[in-house]
């Protein structure tokens, strides 16, 4: 299955990544407000955003910056309520990375971590990086690892850190002749050198082409999804496996135990392409880019699902489809975030009243199902098009970005309020 993930990235470039933040908010009838318009040097494009303790937001651009190869930016709210953007770093392809596609992470010292899909010594394989703020306020890049292909290529999705400062992430491709992708660990050394360890190489039957990145629980276990592969029968147009959700657990000897939590079959979803998130009860939530209940979807195939995975006493995980999308409603749902009451919030890059995307809420019902509420349809005026990411801000509000539209056509930062 060589190169499938790369083809997927090129075909559907508007990729939605989410970030789970602690929160207590619940929304009913929300209103959308554009709080910042990106210009040509800083379109958020296909990447997610994160928040620091002060409520500042951080993200990356797929291109743009001073060299045109992407950038890292900060959005801060001023005392008058307006938002301002600061360009923290511009990638340059040769020697510093290019075309970042994913979501950043902080360590306890305030350093930023991420990955670029291209650039580095090997030009096209990509790299993992750290950004450190100097006393003067400037940010300096440290390259943690440059991928070679055999140890993965096209690193994407969300990176995470453990309490020891190790960095974890995925590459969509590479690792072996299957070209199915890998999960990696980067360990810091006392001399500033970082050591890469491949903690899992996908072979197809256990999944193929991880895309949305990783989530870590309090015990240090890693969770993620793959676009393709798996052992279950899959009735999709591509003819590949429908993907899996997996868990990696650290063992005392330094090795990692791999487990497939669920292998998709098509009718229950196809292609888990976003980061999975936990609720307070230990249940996992995610989305698939295709599949779902095709009996009520446009032919020949469903347009994505929101799913739940609940742990059971026997060690298995039970999957439940919370909602199936179809083309004339919305399609390709992005990652969801969950509040303390168990309500889920997410976006779709198309569909909605104006066909430029939507924001939605899924609320648990008494019967165990979920009721869907449309919060906003994008594309009416300057509110942005193709919404990307949602997070809960420090103030408890929902914030997100759009890949296009707005005052300059390069996307917006928006807020959803009750």
Topology:
Elements: H1 4-11, E1 31-37, E2 49-51, E3 57-61, E4 71-77, E5 83-90, E6 98-100, E7 102-103, E8 105-106, E9 112-118, E10 127-133, E11 139-146, E12 153-161, E13 167-173, E14 182-188, E15 194-201, E16 208-210, E17 215-216, E18 222-228, E19 244-250, E20 256-263, E21 270-272, E22 277-278, E23 284-290, E24 305-311, E25 317-324, E26 330-331, E27 337-338, E28 344-348, E29 350-351, E30 358-364, E31 370-377, E32 385-392, E33 398-404, E34 412-417
Parallel strand pairs: 7-12
Antiparallel strand pairs: 1-34, 2-3, 3-4, 4-5, 6-9, 8-9, 9-10, 10-11, 12-13, 13-14, 14-15, 16-18, 17-18, 18-19, 19-20, 21-23, 22-23, 23-24, 24-25, 26-29, 27-28, 28-30, 30-31, 32-33, 33-34
3D architecture notes:
The chain is an all-beta fold. The protein has one domain: Neuraminidase, CATH 2.120.10. 2% of the residues lie in helices and 46% in strands. It is built from 1 helix and 34 strands. The chain has one helix at residues 4-11; strands spanning 31-37, 49-51, 57-61, 71-77, 83-90, 98-100, 102-103, 105-106, 112-118, 127-133, 139-146, 153-161, 167-173, 182-188, 194-201, 208-210, 215-216, 222-228, 244-250, 256-263, 270-272, 277-278, 284-290, 305-311, 317-324, 330-331, 337-338, 344-348, 350-351, 358-364, 370-377, 385-392, 398-404, 412-417. The strands form 8 sheets. Strands 6, 8, 9, 10 and 11 form a 5-stranded antiparallel sheet that branches. Strands 7-12-13-14-15 form a 5-stranded mixed sheet. The protein is globular. The termini are far apart.
